[in-house]
Amino acid sequence: MTQLGLPEEILACLFDLDGVVTKTAAVHAAAWKATFDAFLREREGEQFRPFDAVTDYDEYVDGLPRPDGVRTFLASRGIELPEGEPGDPPDAPTVHGVGNRKNDLLLATIRTGGVEAYEGTLRYIEAVRAHGLRTAVVSSSANCRDVLRAIGAEDLFDVRIDGVVAAERHLPGKPHPDTFLAAAHDLGTDAAHCAVFEDALAGMDAGRSGRFGYVVGVDRAGQRDALYAHGAHRVVDDLAELGGQA
Question: What is catalysed by this protein (predicted)?
Answer without folding.
Answer: beta-D-glucose 1-phosphate = beta-D-glucose 6-phosphate
